[in-house]
Amino acid sequence: MSRLVMKFGGTSVADLERIRNVAAHVKREVEAGSEVAVVVSAMAGKTNELIAWCKDAGSYFDNPEYDAVVASGELVTAGLLALVLKDVGLQARSWAGWQIPLITNDAHGSARIEKIDGRNLVDGFRRGEIAVVAGFQGLHASTNRVTTLGRGGSDTSAVALAAAIDAGRCDIYTDVDGVYTTDPRVVSKARRLDKVSFEEMLEMASLGAKVLQERSVEVALLHKVRLYVRSSFDDPAHPKPGTLICDEEEIVEQQIVTGIAFSRDEAQITLREVADKPGVAAAIFVPLADANINVDMIIQVVSDDTTTTDITFTVPAAEFERSMEILEARRQAIGYAKLNGAQDVVKISAIGIGMRSHSGVAARAFKALAEKGINIRAITTSEIKFSMLIDEPYTELAVRTLHTLYGLDAK
Ligand code: ADP
Ligand code: ASP
Ligand code: MG
Asked: CA-based angle 146:52:315, to the nearest 5?
């Protein structure tokens, strides 16, 4: 008998009518003879609401309690879907992460999955039961506390569960019918891809395409899970296959650039007139690393006098204030003249395994953006992608320009 994990995101379970529609998709697969585990997200907007409540609760921020609160959204959806499935004559039960159990480390708020015991769910399958699993959550065993897996983490719950129960497929149902060349809500000419390689999908997810959480792609790659992204809004009686995330060898037609991603989750920091001598970069970046702040793009410009330099880098937007405080506190030790920050910036990236074998791909982008009057503040490149930091108001123009430049527009 085939085994399948189906995951439904927030918009797909936004109200009872949508949950009934999810039940119709599940029923179809059960009737086709599959053993099914369904992973659900919180109803649309719920997690944001719960996070806001935690913030309003007081100035004391306690990560385990934050997780206890935000994990509740998924529990509600799991229970409701189990009720609706029973209503259409199927056997089902809901599972909280700790009941499975899905074991994580203790990094509350962005915990990593360490182990999943699939036996309880498999026993349920033998009784003819559909497992409805609350996504996004797990258990840190030795402290006996609920953890959550970071925003978008239900994708990772689903893929890890598929590996644990040896499912032949993991279908991520969402509000778009697959992975596109760029966010279809921003670029109307975005094109759906039939297949995307694991490597490209990893880059796209890490560079801002939130259609899959990055870790879910890592887990799929590691355990060779057959992963599809598809739409819950398709007619349950006539579903479309969606996009397959697969090995590069499975993709016949390779483009040089496969997709354009963008992330508004960036902030830029510049230190002006820093002494140009050994040890300065360490004086800046070691304290940031010690504070667990992830520095991304770095550029250093030597000034005319050749004794000082300007250093610019980016940090996640959420870490901007903390980074500025750390650097201000170390003004003497680092020895800079001025500290500037900018939060109205965006990182635009082009991704494609074809870049390995083609040169000048990024240079074409620099020229195209220059022609549109868009200033590039920082650049980074690696084997299969390059990223540029630009001013936020130019986001759409820049994404559309690159999308056309690399021949990605839908015909
Ligand atoms: P869910 O709630 O189902 O997890 P998400 O909102 O997390 O859904 O992810 C789906 C959204 O991802 C889409 O609505 C789309 O706007 C966005 N997205 C960004 N980049 C892409 C892309 N390259 N392909 C498809 N969707 C994308
Ligand atoms: N509900 C969580 C979030 O909004 C997890 C998820 O939907 O994947 O981030
Ligand atoms: Mg998501």
From this structure: 85
How does DSSP assign 215-244, residue by residue? HHHHHHHHHT--EEEEETTS-TTS----EE
Q: Which ligand approaches the C-alpha of residue 171 most closely?
A: 1
The set of residues, in sequence order, having a beta carbon less than 8 Å from that of 217 and lying 6+ positions away, is 159, 198, 201, 202, 205, 227, 245
Helix/strand/coil for 252? coil
CATH number of the CATH domain containing 347: 3.30.2130.10
The tally of domains found in the chain comes to: 2
In the DSSP assignment, the letter for residue 137 is E
Read off the tokens for 353.
């395994």
Q: Are 258 and 181 in contact (CB under 8 A)?
A: yes
Instruction: Confirm or reject: Cβ of 48 under 6 Å from ligand 1.
Output: no
What confidence tier does 255 reach under pLDDT thresholds 50, 70, 90? confident
- Is a pLDDT exceeding 90 seen at residue 61? no
Question: Is the C-beta atom of 180 inside 6 A of ligand 1?
Answer: yes
Ligand 1 within 6 A of 231 CB? no
Instruction: Check: CB of residue 2 under 8 Å from CB of residue 37.
Output: no
The answer to whether residues 290 and 386 belong to one domain is: yes
pLDDT digits (tens, 9 = 90+) for 207-251: 999 999 999 999 999 999 999 999 999 999 999 999 999 999 999
- C-alpha 311/C-alpha 330 separation (Å) is 15
Distance 220 CA to ligand 1 centre (A): 18
Ligand in closest contact with the CA of 43: 2
Residues of the domain holding 290: 254-411
